[in-house]
Fold this protein.
Amino acid sequence: MESLSAIKKEILELAELYSKKAHSAFRPDGDPLRAKWEAGSPIPYAGRVFTEEEVAAAVSSTLDFWLTLGSEGMNMEKELSEFLGARKCLLVNSGSSANLVAISTLTSHKLKEKKISQGDEVITVAAGFPTTVAPIIQIGAKPVFIDADPITGNARCDQLEKAYRKGKTKAVMMAHALGNPFDLTKTLEFCRKYDLWLIEDNCDALGCSYSMPKELANKLGFKNNSPGLFDGEDRIIRWTGTWGDISTQSFYPPHHLTMGEGGAVNIVNSAKLAVIAESFRDWGRDCWCPSGIDNTCNKRFDWKLGELPKGYDHKYTYSHLGFNLKPLDIQAAIGRVQIKRLPEFIETRKSNWEYLRSGLASNEKFISFALPTHAINWSKSNGFSWDESNCYSDCSWFGFKISIKPTAPFTRTELAKELDKYKIGNRMLFGGNLLRQPAFVELKKENPDAFRVATEVTGSDQIMNDTLFLGTYPGLTKPMLDFEIEIINNFILDRSS
């Protein structure tokens, strides 16, 4: 009789063969088995990039039929935390859930006077994705909005002081827009000054890094580089997602790696926050045992918590009003293969951004392009030039941002329609100015005190009206990028003639 291992081996070999034939269009650019793109075929703004390895990992995990988060999940959490240099990474079922768990963690009674309570304020940015802001409202806190810079797409961190209210402000929660780190120096100095939490929404920015002088970094509490990063003896360089107290990731297919639906909460240093975050992810339970394991604390029947009788099973003791936001082990199996590809994916995103920037450089009269935080210029020959802060950001671009200048003889919508005509994927910069979205307009009508706007939001309005982005993901090939460049250049030439 054929052994189970032999049967499984045969199934996996067939799964790999199937994937090679069925999914060739999803292989990375440069892969010899990658299907050739034909002119006129769609060019997505983003998508999943994988080979037969991911398919085999998913099939293998399915055959094991653990289903819930298990050994694959535990291993992926370990591998992700090792890549980032974070104390703990917790997998969740989406980036949006990651944001919810992250901010909920800071409401724990275990944080005492540092906890975020009902009515406390959390500073965020008006331009962005709704699920960076929605969790703030969902926990009963009040988002306080500052403006965004139309060039970087990020928060105007020079406005943080305007948003602060003594006794009310408890945290800052903002995203690194389109894979471009926000000004971490200004933000960290602000948070240290007032003893505030910092949550980095790193969903679009896995693989971005930020560098500052060592003396400044030490003053802010950072003494070590992230694993695998070095920027000189007199500097500290770290991945985004490791500067704040907590950060979040999304592994939805358009992002830097995919596990299907999925995300992660990264706890940078604090063991206490790690335990609390895991509690909120796992029903609110006080027990921190992994699934299928009992009595990690060696006190399972010795605790006295709440008003429960002494010895009540710690596995069924609940310290928080939590959720069940875990992904499946099958997803983690896919993610583990993707992590191995991450360095290559990061470099490809940078390369694709540079290629588009060079190809569209002649159109600066009518369109403006993104710059990394602290960059003041870009040239084809010399790359970026930097401001006097002596801080640098290195972008793993989520997208290629284009903004239409007021002098242009066309609008953002007209360009978007032209791109759509040729099946070139493009997107708005997510929600534009969130304050103009129906959900926030209606919320303000129902409860005028639901949020506060601390500054003008003209930059966010500009992003809303004039900005779109193209893809930079690793599935784009040079013929695809050349076609995008050709269509945009011809469109601008035609409209400006």
Notes: Residues 289 and 450 are 38 Å apart (CA to CA). The chain has two domains: 71-316, 334-496.
